[in-house]
UniProtKB/TrEMBL annotation:
Gene Ontology CC entries for this record: mitochondrion
EC number: 6.1.1.22
Organism: Phasianus colchicus
Leading EC class: ligase
Protein name: asparagine--tRNA ligase
Family: Belongs to the class-II aminoacyl-tRNA synthetase family.
Any one GO MF annotation of this record: nucleic acid binding
GO BP, sorted A to Z: asparaginyl-tRNA aminoacylation
Keyword Transcription regulation: no
Length: 454
């Protein structure tokens, strides 16, 4: 028998004898003359209907069990599907203890409920669809960069620098051997951490390849229980040399966002529809509109003026020089018409050492940009980088970081060029395009304070 994935079986135009389909049982309905099964193997949102003689039923053939069905693929008489599988043999590969299985047949389990079972929730419709979309989105992002002349770089996970300087580092423990010897404190002889961003390594690479990107896990020991923070998340980062204006960076951000999103929408329409129909019904039309319009650009100064007009609505009063809070970001997005908004030129003192000085008088700013989106707030952060040796040297000196960043200063001594880049939080991206409320539901195995299940 020819083995078919459920997706292939559902898409097949012709009847076929002797096919074999494997998967997990999503429903069993037994009538006097006929037994109906639905089986799903993760290749599509839809399950394949199997019709069988009741004599093929057995005790182990239950919701959740793994089965292999052999039979004939035929045109279905039912309205809901084009084809069905007429079973000639059903083999239960792995039974399922339905009493202790956390999911029940025919019940719709809320996302908060299935979140307790990261190892099993991938078998639910919502997480199944989500993880297929996540896979397509990953491929779409890689294609976008490869098609536009970027070289993909594997930046390290273990690093000795704190790129963002925010002190949200997970330090890596010392080895057993090192613990036992008094003088050798660290495995690498220096303190090391899980990376918070691959940016500084990308900057080195942009000094050779002109355009580079990375897309990997990043880690933040932020003690935040919010709906948009994880301790381990994926970041898409790009770095471009020979770039003198933030406009260039914003253009790449917008182009990436729109290209990846239209690709995902066209590659997995059924999976996306599940979210736009049931999870966030308001989202679909808004997103399609958004893909057609240009994103809005405002300066930090303008943002503060807008916020001050509505000062009374905020817990945290907006003030020039203060970081934008989530409530501020969401307000700005609404104010601009519920569309993505770039905010540019943030105060010098708010931002990390690597951002380029705008040298602009008393309200001193750097060439930074954040992209804010409806419902979430910050989706991307980026900037022009300080490529001028004296500026960077004096800033690092004031922070007492000159020794640690000798290699980074080297980049400004040996063929330095104006450059810039950005990072996009991949989970926040998925949250936004699908309208998912909680970031824990867009990653297979979420890690957050006080929780690292399996
Ligand atoms: O704004 P961030 O901290 O920027 C950087 O790390 C830069 N070095 C990137 C660069 O220019 N190459 O982080 C970038 C994005 C944020 O805008 C946000 O979407 C996401 O990463 N992010 C998080 N996502 C989930 N959980 C967290 N704890 C996150 N922290 C940041
Ligand atoms: Mg940021």
């Amino acid at each position: 028998a020819a083995r078919l994935r459920v997706r292939e079986a559902l898409g097949s135009r012709e009847a076929a004898d002797k096919v074999k389909v494997q998967g997990w049982v999503r429903s069993v309905r037994s009538q006097k003359e006929v037994l109906f099964l639905h089986i799903n193997d993760g290749s599509s949102l839809e399950s394949l209907q199997v019709v069988a003689d009741p004599s093929l039923e057995c005790r182990d053939l239950t919701f959740g069990s793994a089965v292999e069905v052999q039979g004939k693929l035929v045109k279905s008489p039912h309205k809901m599907q084009d084809v069905e599988l007429q079973a000639e043999a059903i083999h239960v590969v792995g039974p399922c203890d339905t009493l202790s299985f956390p999911f029940k047949i025919k019940e719709r389990h809320p996302l908060e409920y299935v979140r307790q079972f990261p190892h099993l929730r991938c078998r639910s419709n919502a997480l199944g669809a989500l993880l297929r979309i996540r896979s397509e989105a990953t491929a779409a992002i890689h294609s976008f960069f490869q098609d536009n002349g970027y070289v993909h770089i594997h930046t390290p996970i273990i690093t000795s620098n704190d790129c963002e300087g925010a002190g949200e580092l997970f330090q890596i423990g010392t080895s057993q051997e090192a613990k036992e010897s008094a003088e050798k404190k660290h495995f690498f002889n220096v303190p090391t951490f899980l990376t918070v961003s691959g940016q500084l390594h990308l900057e080195a690479m942009a000094g050779a390849f002109t355009r580079v990107f990375t897309f990997g896990p990043t880690f933040r020991a932020e003690n935040s229980q919010s709906r948009r923070h994880l301790a381990e998340f994926y970041m898409v980062e790009a770095e471009l040399s020979f770039t003198e204006s933030l406009q260039d960076i914003m253009q790449v951000m917008e182009h990436l966002f729109k290209t990846a999103t239209s690709t995902v929408f066209s590659k997995c329409p059924r999976d996306v529809e599940l979210f736009h129909k049931y999870v966030a019904p308001a989202q679909k039309g808004r997103l399609e509109q958004m893909l057609k319009n240009k994103f809005v650009i405002i300066s930090y100064n303008e943002a503060v003026e807008i916020l001050k007009q509505a000062s009374q609505t905020f817990n945290f009063k907006p003030e020039w020089g203060c970081d934008l809070q989530t409530e501020h970001e969401k307000y700005l997005v609404k104010h601009c018409g519920d569309v993505p908004v770039f905010v540019i030129n943030y105060p010098y003192d708010l931002k990390p050492f690597y951002m380029r000085d705008n040298e602009d008088g008393p309200q001193h700013t750097v060439a930074a940009v954040d992209l804010l989106v409806p419902g979430i707030g910050e989706l991307c952060g980026g900037s022009l980088r300080e490529e001028r040796l004296p500026f960077l040297e004096s800033r690092l000196q004031r922070l007492g970081l000159t020794d640690a960043y000798q290699w980074y200063l080297d980049l400004r001594k040996f063929g330095s060029v104006p450059h810039g880049g950005f990072g996009m939080g991949f989970e926040r991206y998925l949250q936004y395009i699908l309208g998912v409320d909680n970031i824990k539901d867009v990653i297979p195995f979420p890690r957050f304070p006080h929780s690292c299940l399996l």
